[in-house]
Design goal:
Elements: E1 10-12, E2 32-36, H1 42-55, E3 60-65, E4 70-78, E5 81-89, E6 93-95, E7 103-105
Parallel strand pairs: 2-3
Antiparallel strand pairs: 1-2, 3-4, 4-5, 6-7
């Protein structure tokens, strides 16, 4: 069975993690993925992609929901879900958990 592949709006990984010319990579180096909703992608970002990212063990999923004017930080992946979810209104400073451990100011989002 071919693995399901996802293309996030943003991926954060250590420098050099993807320095080869492969089209697809093992997601184990990825520290964070982010999705920004649009009317055409919102449902996929909310339902399908979150499952794939959790299953892949991506430590942090930053979900920017423009329709709801909210940011959700999902962390602690386990099986096909994230154990933690911190929801904030856009415009707030949002803390990113380990392995990142810094804040993101969403005022400009």
């Amino acid at each position: 069975m071919r693995p399901q592949r996802r293309v996030p709006d943003l991926a954060v990984a250590p420098k050099g993690a993807f320095d080869d010319e492969q089209e697809w990579h093992d997601p184990s180096a990825v520290l964070l993925v982010a999705e920004v909703t649009s009317t055409s992608t919102g449902d996929r970002d909310r339902e399908t992609k979150i499952l794939g990212y959790a299953r892949a063990g991506i430590p942090v999923y930053l979900f920017i929901d423009r329709e709801e004017a909210e940011v959700t930080v999902f962390s602690e992946p386990s099986a096909d879900r994230y154990a933690k979810a911190l929801k904030c209104k856009l415009g707030m400073v949002v803390p990113l958990p380990s392995p990142l451990g810094f804040d993101v100011d969403t005022a400009e989002f």
